[in-house]
Amino acid sequence: MQKVLIVTGGSRGIGAALSRLGAEAGYAICVNYRRGREAAEALVTEINARGGHAIAVAADVAVEADVMRLFARVDEDLGSVTALVNNAGILEKHARVEDMDAARLGRVLAANVTGSFLCAREAIRRMSTRHGGQGGAIVNVSSRAARLGSPGEYVDYAASKAAVDTLTIGLSREVAAEGIRVNAVSPGIIYTDIHASGGEPGRVDRLKDAVPMKRGGQPEEVAHAILWLLSGEASYVTGANLDVSGGR
C-alpha cells in the first residue's frame, strides 16, 4: 500500500523539513499551504527532482470546505491518506490577555484547534477499519507553550495548543482499536519564522540561554521526532506527547 502523508502548513519551517524527510522515507507527500504558494511549489519541485512524489495543495484548514477539498485532491492524485501531520498553526503579535479581542481569539482557535479537528476527522474517515480503511497514524504539532502559558506574549496560542494536547489524548483512545495511532510533539523554541509573526524574529536567540542545552532547535530535529511517531518503530505508541525542547 502506498504511504501517503499530508503535512498541513507544509511549505515552511517544521512542515517543510518533514516533507523532505518524509519523501526520503518513501511517503508520497501532500504539501498543504494557505498563502505560501511559491515556497510550496518550490518544495514540491525539489522533492520530485530527487525522485520523490509530492503535490502542493492550497487550503485553509480553518475552513471546512477547504479541508474536504484538500483530502479529495489527495484521494485523486496520491491515494488515500495513511499519515497526517497537523502542523499548520498561527500566532499573533505579542499581547497581554487584557488587550486581546474576540476577533484575534477566533483566528487563533480556528486555525490551531478547529483545523486540527477537521483534518483529523477527514483522515479518520479514510484510515479507520470501522470505515473499511487500513489504519494509519496522526501526529499533532503542539507546543511547550501549552504547559508554560506564554505569559505576556501569547496566552491565546498556548491555550490553543493545550486544546490540541487534549484532542490528542481523547482521539487516541477513541480510535486505538480502529488501527489508528494518534500522538503529538511539543517543540520548544525552534528556529522558524513563526516568531516573526509574533513580532520578534530574534526570539529564539533571546531565550536560548534559558534552555538546558543552551541553544534553539532546528526544524529537522522536530521533523525526525514526528517521522518516528509515524513509523512502524512507534507501533505501540499512541496518546503520547513527545517534548522536543532541549530540556525546557
UniProtKB/TrEMBL annotation:
Report the Pfam families cross-referenced here: adh_short_C2 (PF13561)
What name goes with this protein? Answer: NAD(P)-dependent oxidoreductase
**In which domain of life is the source organism classified?**
Bacteria
Q: The Ketoreductase domain covers which part of the protein?
A: 3-188
Keyword list (alphabetical) reads: Oxidoreductase
Q: Which family does it belong to?
A: Belongs to the short-chain dehydrogenases/reductases (SDR) family.
Q: Which organism is it from?
A: Acidihalobacter yilgarnensis
Q: Which InterPro entries match?
A: KR_dom, NAD(P)-bd_dom_sf, SDR_fam
One GO molecular-function annotation for this sequence?
Answer: oxidoreductase activity
